């Protein structure tokens, strides 16, 4: 009975996670009709995507506090309810550019509570040995959403328009929020942890730690191509390569498939065969991803673009998963919570910077070459910045009188 209850909880959280990622995926395709309807400039389109991640960055730490104060179930339901409500407002009430920005910002605020609530739910309902597998299932929803999301997005855009698409997504988020409220059990007492795990390391010491600083930079750089391509790839393929919208969705789906496969396999492979060599994995995979991203721009064939994007996301996600698990291996438990908050903020800031920076590059260069150079460079930086971490462990910086 307990197994069935936990399986149902993971299933519902997985579906909710998929909705969150589909929301981000649909925006990239919706920018095409939004651009025509509002006669927007490229940098304005970048702001529509960027403000979402700005809100996500700002409210990530407060969302963690709300989880501790009110419990994960209330924050889970509230997060999906807010995300769904503001998605509906984006489609139905977004009549000006200012309103579009406002509702995407508010949707990002709702999104900020979901990942932290899921992590809290996993911690409260699974033993330490079971948590990694449970969390990997939830994280794999990103790949599923990026595989199915483009196909669903194009179908909905063609049949019910971008406004109807966001309204439908909002209704779906309401339904899952209700299911979680009804079917997911109330928070139980967390599994016992050692006394050192209860303590929070001082932020000043963490901010001086080379490990935390370098991981912050690496996650920031890795999320720039991840979310930059999500926002701008459909527009590039349709307007610059002349592909039909349906074909561009298949290209994007190939990248999502690569992300899904990589997220499911990387943790096992690195944990079993590359212990202590994580820096080599990140560096090599980031460089290979940079090459593949460059080839996506260089090719004019939809099949070749799909293939290069697939491998580009395979290597990018391999780097991301490895970097994301490094704090658990290099940092002590008494500073883990604070450290992950700092490092995750780097990732969300990357999602904020990417679409805005790419929008300005498209406008200034009147093309996409400079944007792909930008993506290639940040991928190379994400690989090289990890190399100094070889064999390095955390040691607190002692304050001097």
TrEMBL record:
InterPro entries: MFS, MFS_dom, MFS_Na/Anion_cotransporter, MFS_trans_sf. Keywords: Membrane, Transmembrane, Transmembrane helix. The keyword Glycoprotein does not apply. It comes from the Bacteria. The chain crosses the membrane at residues 6-33, 45-66, 78-101, 137-160, 166-185, 206-225, 245-269, 281-299, 305-326, 338-362, 368-390. CDD domains: MFS_ExuT_GudP_like. It is found in: Membrane. Coiled coil: none annotated. GO terms for cellular component: membrane. Residues 9-394 form the Major facilitator superfamily (MFS) profile domain. It holds the Pfam family MFS_1. It is a multi-pass membrane protein. Belongs to the major facilitator superfamily. Phthalate permease family. This is Major facilitator superfamily (MFS) profile domain-containing protein. It comes from Hafnia alvei ATCC 13337.
């Amino acid at each position: 009975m307990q197994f069935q209850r936990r399986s149902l909880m993971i299933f519902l959280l997985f579906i909710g996670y998929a909705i969150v990622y589909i929301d981000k995926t649909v925006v990239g395709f919706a920018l095409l009709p939004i651009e025509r309807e509002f006669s927007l400039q490229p940098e304005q389109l970048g702001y529509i995507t960027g403000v979402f991640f700005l809100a996500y960055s700002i409210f990530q730490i407060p969302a963690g506090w709300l989880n501790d104060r009110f419990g994960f179930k209330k924050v889970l339901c509230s997060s999906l309810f807010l995300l769904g409500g503001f998605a509906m407002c984006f489609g139905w009430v977004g009549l000006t550019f200012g309103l579009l920005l406002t509702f995407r910002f508010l949707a990002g605020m709702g999104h900020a509570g979901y990942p932290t609530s899921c992590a809290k739910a996993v911690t409260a309902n699974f033993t330490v040995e079971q948590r990694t597998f449970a969390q990997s299932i939830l994280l794999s929803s990103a790949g599923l959403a990026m595989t199915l999301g483009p196909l669903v997005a194009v179908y909905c855009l063609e049949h019910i328009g971008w406004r109807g698409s966001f309204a439908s997504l909002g209704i779906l988020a309401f339904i899952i929020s209700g299911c979680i409220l009804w079917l997911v059990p109330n928070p139980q007492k967390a599994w016992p942890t050692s006394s050192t795990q209860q303590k929070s390391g001082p932020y000043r010491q963490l901010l001086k730690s080379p490990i935390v600083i370098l991981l912050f930079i690496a996650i920031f750089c890795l999320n720039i191509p991840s979310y930059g391509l999500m926002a701008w790839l459909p527009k590039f393929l349709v307007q610059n390569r002349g592909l039909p919208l349906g074909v561009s969705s298949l290209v994007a789906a190939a990248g999502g498939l690569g992300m899904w496969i990589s997220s499911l396999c990387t943790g096992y492979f690195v944990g079993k065969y590359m212990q202590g060599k994580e820096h080599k994995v990140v560096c090599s995979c980031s460089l290979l991803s940079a090459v593949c991203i460059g080839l996506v721009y260089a090719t004019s064939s939809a099949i070749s673009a799909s293939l290069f994007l697939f491998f580009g996301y395979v290597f990018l996600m391999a780097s991301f998963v490895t970097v994301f698990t490094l704090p658990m291996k290099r940092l002590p438990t008494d500073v883990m919570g604070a450290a992950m908050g700092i490092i995750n903020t780097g990732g969300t800031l990357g999602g904020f910077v990417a679409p805005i920076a790419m929008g300005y590059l498209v406008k200034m260069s009147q093309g996409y070459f400079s944007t792909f150079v930008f993506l290639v460079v940040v991928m190379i930086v994400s690989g090289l910045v990890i190399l100094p971490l070889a064999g390095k462990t955390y040691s607190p910086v002692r304050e001097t009188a």
